[in-house]
Amino acid sequence: MKILILGAGQVGTSVAENLVNEANDITVVDNDAERLENLQNRFDLRTVQGNGAHPEVLQRAGAEDADMILAVTNSDETNMAACQIAYSLFHTPTKIARIRASEYLSHPEIFSQEAIPIDVIISPEQIVTDYIQRLIEYPSALQVLDFAGGLAQLVGVKAYYGGPLVGHELRALREHLPNIETRVAAIYRRDRAILPKGDTVIEADDEVFFIAAKKDIRTVMSELRKLDKPVKKVILAGGGNIGRRLALSLEQKNFSTKLIDHNRVRVRDVANELNHTIVLQGDAADEELLLQEGIEDTDAFCALTNDDEANILSAMLAKRLGARKVMSLINRAAYVDLVQAGGEIDIAISPQTATIGSLLAHVRRGDVVAVHSLRRGAAEAIEAVAHGDQNSSRVIGRQISEIKLPSGTTIGAIIRNDQVLIAHHDVVIEPNDHVIMFLVDKRRIPDVEKLFQVSYTFF
Fold first, then answer.
1. How much is the pLDDT for 52?
2. What is the pTM of this model?
3. What CATH number is attached to the domain comprising 280?
């Protein structure tokens, strides 16, 4: 697939890194020559320097025969103009744009073939906001991912000493929970992936990823660790797009929320927008301010500014002052790994990792509905739809045990007519089933895509 990526910032670079390893023809366009040189030194791709919204630049980049344009610059207006020009001059089949401003997103009628022809809109801020909110709703989880519109969830938790299942084989899970269907998709032990089997023994500190219907998630979690108390009091550091969106969402769900920001003008704007959130002007790394606002009784502290260092420091301070769970938004991948290894911050959130799945879902071959990166991009979870019939499909009409899955791949669940079916060996795949898979080895993604591509005999 020939793909043009407009913008070599953090999102564009993350997308390029994922796609270039999957035999795609990638060209990256950006005004910054140094960024482009760094990309070319790291990956096998083409680069073009210039404004991605200019027709001449798009032509030099090969827009006339591109299959897709991903407009992910930092400018909404540039992204919209680029998609318009790609449609009008080059008839590009698929146009995906990053749109950040809520003023645009609140008017979806703008993005139509008759107005600004964008096929898919990606809002990183909203994606990250939703991601953090799920972690607040499940305070014992390391990661919470939705599938099939939220009917099923894939949850990662750390198994703790004393958990009912710790020290026992996985097959004991069914004995402990005879009336609940769940499946462990993968286990990470000392950063090494283990494909789970019935006789696999759960050890303390294992990172366990399991899938179940949303209504059963808390019950399954309780088998692996003692559940944390529900979150009630939240402090947010940062009143930017993510901070204010999260505050608005939390106050609608009756959380007790405080938001801290150092910028006087922003504090005033945020305070006017929110109704039930206490908005404070100050430094979130000010020990006196945090103590004054009851940090020791805070259930969740989220550092959400645009400054990685400020987020890390304020989250570490909040943890030491007594906050039960702290999360930090961190853009630099090296910082994410460093913070996770240190253990003083409970969850380091990478906006790129959270966002990349939304983009990849539209790039994957076959009918892929959702893609989620796991463990900071080391693994991937995919939701694909089975099409065709027994003659044209490699999966339809076959039991799961009969499907030749690529190495390191497991099927966790099937969503059929809004019903969550856990993937036991004798479950037969039917047309239009949503199949949720876990891939430990991302190099096998093309093989998984082939499984869900319908052969030419299907009409």
1. 94
2. 0.83
3. 3.40.50.720
